[in-house]
Amino acid sequence: MGAVTFAATVKDIRLESRAGTEARWQIALDNTRFSASAKSGTLVAVARSGTRLEVPVLGIVEEQGTVWHIVGKPLTDGTEVIGILTEGRA
Fold first, then answer.
1. Which stretches of the chain drop beneath a pLDDT of 70?
2. By CB count within 10 A, which of 18, 60, 72, 83 is most buried?
3. 15: burial class by Cβ within 10 Å (0-12, 13-18, 19+)?
4. CATH number for the 4-85 domain, one of 3.40.190.10, 1.50.10.10, 3.40.50.2300, 2.40.30.130?
5. How does DSSP classify residue 3?
């Protein structure tokens, strides 16, 4: 079975935790294929300059109908991303 991909836009971001210089963030997308059975993968953003940023999804948290993607790098609200699932089924 091939990788599952989808296009989305970052709609919200919040700090999950900070320990020294390390931080973990939670990102909400306008749509997602990540779920309790498909909770790891990557969010890929491409800057206007063409620079590609790959942000691993470390897990998810579901809260009041919103899926929050746990990541180690923040993405700005409004950033367009491609989600790539690497575990489980969408």
1. 1-2, 87-90
2. 83
3. exposed
4. 2.40.30.130
5. P
